[in-house]
Write a structure and sequence with these properties.
The structure holds 2 protein chains of 2 kinds.
Chain A (H helix, E strand, L loop, with lengths): L7 E10 L2 E2 L1 H10 L4 E3 L1 H5 L6 E3 L4 H8 L2 H4 L4 H16 L16 E6 L5 H13 L10 H5 L3 H10 L5 E2 L7 H14 L5 E8 L3 H9 L30 E9 H6 L6 E10 L13 H15 L8 E3 L7 H12 L9 E3 L2 H4 L6 H15 L1 E2 L24 E2 L4 E8 L3 E9 L3
Parallel strand pairs in A: 5-6, 5-7, 10-11, 10-14
Antiparallel strand pairs in A: 1-2, 1-8, 1-9, 3-4, 7-8, 9-15, 12-13, 14-15
Chain B lengths: L1 H12 L6 H5 L18 H12 L5 H5 L4 H15 L1
Classes of the chains: A alpha/beta, B mainly alpha.
């Protein structure tokens, strides 16, 4: 068997999302169209245009059930979100969190856990104020491990005794999807048997401020938080910032079958590329040719026909990019309006979780495959007129429907793209 | 007096120790790293906590010698005696 033929499956899922922590809560929220967007007092106090956001709930209380006090001394929000999601995925895959004093190391298991902006809460709350006050000596020992780009994966390796590659990737809003791609390839090429893959992003004004300043956030719905994230709607006025973590346990089919693991889905293909900021692409806008190339590449690598795709979990943030994206899907899959697979936006409920977006949404996509539903995309009753011809394909109310193949895409600053294709598990 | 300082040092080390049992049974001879299972980087935080709690300043050279509970207690006692 050539290494490229090694099949990669999903055997565990973990999610810490603004509208639910854990698979049960998250599935219920997705099915019901429950928004996790809330008014955030700090955003109002600090004069943000957008004063609502998606923040996972009750995390400080829950974190004490996952981590020791000693661990928590040096874990900022993104590290907590990422590690909670990873530990949930690890347990969901049938593993126990190892004892700290055990010397067993999981040589065949690694992780790729990234973020868009790393350690911003630590940098904003501690590092900058202390240094500017001339108190560098008073900062304590925990700053580097919380602000280094690999903070999330580095912490996790110690919690779970991971012995394979342990790293953090970053590709803006494509980070979570890219992490899954990186992990997928590592297993496919026989370099690991299991990889925890995903991303996390903190709920920090220092993460969100730059986007607010760019005027890419919706500042018009501050009094109606649950209506604020409006992908594909005529009234879409920018995205709503979100936060949290999502992690998939990817595993070689051989390993999963040998240990009798429950298999959610097969990851048929994972492709990333970049539009080179040419042909209409820029730091912040996609080169449509490269987006289509990415999707086509994923379809080809999955060895499926485009019409086998039943559903798309889009990037769909609630900017003008939505129109471009839907049309790119139609062109890449060579299907006219009416023939597009069912498409919806998880961001309509949780906002744009940036570096965590791709992996939280991938958890949603795998749940949809496994449980037989396609969640509705809320807040697009007033569908954008330019998307009217796709009205039948845009899922507004959750459909209970067995689906076999789902595609997940993400796009990020830097003109980067990612596309994953999952198939419901079958031998 | 020395008991009071000892108890306070144990309390300050508490959050950083990964072995709470060892902490309960700690003596002046207990080493922070080996016996109380602290990460070596956290010695910095213990020194900061000692400075704040006892109102003393600990130089870098002095800090390097704080490796056991007893060495911390002795340093604190010496500093307090010098200030008195």
């Amino acid at each position: 068997m050539k290494s490229e033929d090694r099949r990669v499956v999903v055997t565990g899922l973990g999610v810490v999302a603004p509208n639910g922590h854990g698979l049960k809560e998250f599935e219920r929220a997705l099915r019901a169209g429950t928004s996790g967007i809330r008014k955030i007092a700090a955003l109002e106090e600090l004069n943000f245009r957008c004063q609502v956001a998606g923040v996972p709930q009750n995390i400080p209380e829950k974190a004490t059930q996952y981590f020791s006090d000693e661990d928590l001394l040096a874990m900022n929000q993104a590290m907590i979100y990422g590690a909670m999601a990873a530990i949930d995925a690890w347990r969901d895959a049938g593993f126990k969190v190892p004892e700290r004093n055990s010397d067993e190391i999981f040589w065949d298991t690694g992780c790729v856990l990234g973020s868009g902006l790393s350690g911003m809460d630590t940098i904003g709350d501690v590092l900058v104020p202390k240094i500017n006050a001339g108190k560098v000596r008073r900062m304590g020992s925990t700053l580097v491990e919380q602000t280094m780009a690999s903070a999330i994966s580095a912490k996790l390796s110690g919690l779970l005794a991971l012995g394979n590659q342990v790293t953090s990737n970053s590709s803006a809003c494509n980070t979570g999807t890219e992490a899954i791609q990186d992990a997928f390839l590592r297993i496919r090429f026989g370099l690991a048997e299991r990889m925890l893959a995903g991303g996390a992003e903190s709920s920090s004004v220092y993460v969100w401020g730059g986007f607010d300043a760019m005027r890419v956030l919706n500042g018009e719905s501050n009094d109606q938080p649950t209506k604020a994230s409006r992908p594909m709607s005529h009234s879409a006025g920018g995205f709503i910032p979100g936060s949290g973590g999502g992690v998939l346990m990817l595993e070689s089919l051989d390993s999963a079958q040998q240990r009798g693991a429950r298999i959610y889905a097969e990851l048929l293909s994972a492709v990333v590329n970049c539009g080179g900021q040419r042909q209409g692409g820029s730091m912040t806008a996609p080169n449509s040719a490269s987006v289509q190339r990415c999707i086509r590449g994923a379809v080809a690598a999955a060895k499926i026909a485009p019409e086998e795709i039943d559903a798309i979990n889009g990037h769909l943030t609630a900017t003008m990019g939505d129109l471009i994206e839907v049309n790119n899907w139609a062109q890449a899959l060579e299907c006219g309006p009416g023939k597009l697979p069912m498409i919806s936006s998880t961001k309509s409920m949780i906002g744009h979780c940036l570096g965590a977006a791709g992996s939280i949404e991938a958890v949603a996509a795998v749940l949809e495959l496994d449980r037989g539903f396609v969640h509705g995309s809320i807040n697009c009753e007033d569908l954008h007129p330019e998307l009217e011809s796709f009205a039948d394909n845009i899922v507004q109310k959750t459909r209970d429907e067995e689906i076999s193949v789902i595609a997940k895409s993400s796009f990020g600053f830097g003109d980067v793209n990612g596309c994953l294709i999952f198939r419901k598990w079958r031998e | 007096m020395s008991d009071e300082i000892f108890e306070k040092v144990i309390e300050l080390v508490g959050p950083f120790s990964k072995d709470k049992e060892a902490l309960k049974n700690a003596t002046e001879n207990s080493s922070f790293l080996k016996d109380l299972q602290m990460s070596s980087s956290r010695l910095v935080d213990v020194v900061l906590a000692i400075e704040d709690t006892f109102g003393i300043e600990v130089g870098d050279d002095e800090a390097d010698k704080i490796l056991t509970v007893g060495s911390a207690v002795s340093l604190i006692r010496a500093k307090q005696a010098a200030a008195a």
